[in-house]
Amino acid sequence: MFYSYLSINNPSDFPSREPQQSPIGVFDSGVGGLTVLTQLYRQLPNESILYFGDTARLPYGTRSPAEIVQFTREILCWMQQQQVKMVVMACHTGSALALETVRWEFPFPILGVILPGAKAAVKQGKRIGVIATPATAASNAFPQAIQEIDSTAKVWQVGCPEFVPLIEDNRINEPYTKEVARRYLAPLIQQQIDTLIYGCTHYPHLSPVLRSLLPNSIKLVDPAIHVVKAVACELDLLGLRNNLPPMPTRFCVSGCPQQFIQSSVRWLGYAPVVEKVNLETVLTPSYPLELLD
């Protein structure tokens, strides 16, 4: 297996190009955002992608709102240096806690996964369950979004702190993971939900485990599918869709490249070339402390 480790401290290796040919930035705390990346490959095969995993600071789900906003700003500032034309926050925790704060601070569209997932869920059912990280659940982002779309829908959510570490450690097929999933799903099944939202982009990786525990009548909603549909609409609206062949996907992480490669190869089907990025060298604007509250 071929591994490549690079240290990137300067602006992008991407040369100057037409705006349509610039990459779409995608970021998550780890491999969860690969579910969004896969959908980008399927729905927008001509788009070049810059993928960033903030693996040095995962999991995000137990972080404070102030930390999430700061991490998000640092990543977006770095992506701006890489000349992206759009960013997808392929992280429900970031989408819930940071999107509305940072989306107007940068000169490119920033799309989150909460609203597309909520819109898809209300089309599927009226008794909606959400499994999410503790931080996303505490934010009430999904219940609020769903209620704004359909006030008659009922929503129950469960924080699942163990899921992301189990996925990142490649422990999906262990009996312990199934028992953890059974415990998290039990209160939602008791409420007789008809729809379940993956409230974290990591969670579709658990689909076989979750499906084996859920009644067949419960529909699953993967926000990754629907946020990429929103990306396509935004590209068309702005005239930014790329019609030329894409550049190879560029993978970057803040932590250990080898660990990311080992975690991602089963989802990608190949061992990606991964660059290590030092976000400490990225100059971020100063903001009043109250903005971080």
From TrEMBL:
Substrate binds at D28, S29, Y60, G61, T201, H202. Pathway: Cell wall biogenesis; peptidoglycan biosynthesis. One of its GO terms (molecular function) is glutamate racemase activity. Keywords: Cell shape, Cell wall biogenesis/degradation, Isomerase, Peptidoglycan synthesis. It catalyses: L-glutamate = D-glutamate. One of its GO terms (biological process) is cell wall organization. SUPFAM superfamilies: Aspartate/glutamate racemase. The keyword Electron transport does not apply. Its EC number is 5.1.1.3. It holds the Pfam family Asp_Glu_race. The active site is at C91 (proton donor/acceptor), C200 (proton donor/acceptor). InterPro entries: Asp/Glu/hydantoin_racemase, Asp/Glu_race, Asp/Glu_racemase_AS_2, Glu_race. Provides the (R)-glutamate required for cell wall biosynthesis. HAMAP family: Glu_racemase (MF_00258). Belongs to the aspartate/glutamate racemases family. PANTHER family: GLUTAMATE RACEMASE. This is Glutamate racemase. The gene is murI.
